[in-house]
Amino acid sequence: MEKREIIIDLLGSDRGAEEMLEGARMALEAFPGVSVVLSGPRALIEAAALPEGRYRILEADKTVTNLDNPIEAFYSKEPVSVFKALEEASRCDDVIGVISAGNTGALFAGAIRYLLADKTVRPCIAAILPNTQGGFTCLVDTGASIDCGPAQLVDFAHRGSDFMRQLYKLDAPRVGLLSNGAEPTKGNKLVKETHALLSKEEGIHFVGNIEGNKTLSGLCDVLVCEGFAGNQVLKNSEGMAVNLITEIIKYGKTHQVPAAQEIAGYLMSRFDFASLGAGIMLGTSKVVMKCRGSSQRTAIKNAARMLINLNENKTIYV
Amino acid sequence: MEKREIIIDLLGSDRGAEEMLEGARMALEAFPGVSVVLSGPRALIEAAALPEGRYRILEADKTVTNLDNPIEAFYSKEPVSVFKALEEASRCDDVIGVISAGNTGALFAGAIRYLLADKTVRPCIAAILPNTQGGFTCLVDTGASIDCGPAQLVDFAHRGSDFMRQLYKLDAPRVGLLSNGAEPTKGNKLVKETHALLSKEEGIHFVGNIEGNKTLSGLCDVLVCEGFAGNQVLKNSEGMAVNLITEIIKYGKTHQVPAAQEIAGYLMSRFDFASLGAGIMLGTSKVVMKCRGSSQRTAIKNAARMLINLNENKTIYV
After folding, report:
1. Chain A closest-CA separation from residue B230 CA (Å)
2. B-chain residues near A248 (CB < 8 A)
3. Could you tell me the residue ranges of all domains in chain B?
4. Cis previous bond, A141, omega within 30
5. A101-140 burial, b for 16+ CB within 10 Å, e for fewer?
6. How far apart are CA B46 and CA A177, in angstroms?
7. Taking CA atoms, what residue in A is nearest to B271?
8. ipTM score of the complex?
9. Which of residues 259-318 of B touch A (CB under 8 A)?
């Protein structure tokens, strides 16, 4: 059997390297055919006593925080865990992908440097979100590219379409454009210009503008927006899900409704963005998964599962 | 007792003038001290047989649809219901405010023409949303001003602060700036420039960037963003609330959990944006409420209640 390795960037997570290490441990337990490559401080990794022969170490002590400039960090002389991880992914055939919960800008810059699939394509970060039709919607971009132009959004539409075609075997994924109204006249300058381009773009099944209250209604398979708005959709959906679930639990306690716990549990399994919604970079030669900074160990294990699935489906990104 | 009139624009709603008329009827029943001025087709209004002496008519047969250009409609020779409504509000002292569920651009243009409180101030549309601390957050702008500059966002911060000071008697309302990360380095070009301005703006209690998953966490009293992003926050929050509530009802039916209905009902009362979240124009000399195009009669009645409350609190906007 061929060797399959997943690289995990241990640094940059809000919960610290220990949580990432526990995520790695859970992934090793859950997926026997896979081993991990851990990018981070050697002493810490060795102290974790992971199963022998199932891991190797990339030594790196430095990370890029949200207050650092990712580009400056890139030219740092010290070993930065995320760049070591991406470099190793580019060199080593056994590696099937990289997982990081660190700074998005650094991960993005590193992926462009080491794993760019096609020099003419700027990668983007997609999220696969559960929609109310029981399917999934690919939201792209979710925050990697802020301040985009219309041509970039057309690129995102292609990346997302390719991805959904491959992953869900859709012939012509329906592409929607996030706007402040369903009519073609609605939108900011960027959205109006993008609308005009997408309407005549070949290879894109454009279904028009999608309003904010319909993002997860299953009206489209790919929802295109620039990273700032996409980040709002992603985090707002997650935040609202958390708010409502919290309210249900509170209500159950104060009003003695034991079923509230059961309902909250069901909704958490259905709308738990924190563990579901790791971002997937599109446009790279290997799978790069961006987990939220606040990811718990389970989210890291789930990202590993998704990475393995994508690899087994031979899902490529350009 | 002084006469208090609320003008209701009957045209432009997705549900038709009949639904608006029924909203007017509910408002008349609920608020005995108030009468209504109905802007719309005379025959339709007379056929509704509202209580004698509690209404008068502004004849108007034309509306502005989402496909029309609001500025062109403004120079139309025919009587447009929303403009008739706003003109009457500006002329008549008994009128305490205007309610419309029609095109936002037309309402906005008309309000600038007829009800501008201060010529140096561009109005904006705020929404007062329930937050998880049990309080309310003023989101501004929610879609009236797309493609803003940083100075405009600073204006919104002032309008929102003034409003929350007056309505909730807050000394120094906390102002947050919607961004894709909490750190001051996060944001698109507009947000970064606005962050710098708000940090040194007098009369603003700026608490920094707010991420999309914290919009309704009660971390700020006023959440500032340009209209495109604000529209996403508003509609996305609403959409997610609807999605989760729908899931709860479905789950209750398929799994025979009768308490699901009770919990769904509770959440609907707590997070029903459609009836709660009528937009309030800030920067006008009279209260202008923008209801969603899909508003039901109850939402119109609730908007009337809010309008009466704002008027009684002597809440002004600049």
Report:
1. 9
2. 248, 263, 267
3. 1-123+283-318, 127-276
4. yes
5. bbbbbbbbbbbbebbbbeeebbbbbbbbbbbbeeebbbbb
6. 43
7. A244
8. 0.85
9. 259-260, 262-263, 266-267, 270-271
> One fold for both B1-123+283-318 and B127-276?
yes
Fold of B1-123+283-318: Isopropylmalate Dehydrogenase (3.40.718)
What is the largest distance, in Å, between two alpha-carbon atoms of chain B? 61
| Cα–Cα dist B83/B25, whole Å | 22
For residue A81, the surrounding DSSP H or E stretch is helix A81-91
List phi, psi (to 5°) of A160. Answer: -65, -40
Give the Cα separation of A114 and A117 in Å (integer): 9
**Best mutation site among B223, B236, B237 for testing chain A: the one with the most A CBs within 10 Å?**
B236
Query: Does residue A179 surpass a pLDDT of 50?
Result: yes
Check if the beta carbon of residue A165 is closer than 8 Å to that of residue A315: no
CATH code of the domain occupying A126-275? 3.40.718.10
Cβ atoms within 10 Å of B314's Cβ, excluding its own: 7
* The pLDDT of residue B318: 38
State which amino acid sits at residue A88. Answer: E
- The pTM score is 0.87
Pick from B107, B116, B170, B164: nearest CA to B140: B164
Q: Kindly give the interhelix angle for B16-30 and B297-312, rounded to the nearest 10 degrees.
A: 50
CATH architecture, range B127-276: 3-Layer(aba) Sandwich (3.40)
State which residues of chain B have pLDDT below 70.
Answer: 1, 272-277, 314-318
Note the helical H segments in B92-226.
Answer: 104-115, 150-168, 189-199
Cα separations in angstroms, B76 against A64, B71, B236, B318? 58, 9, 35, 30
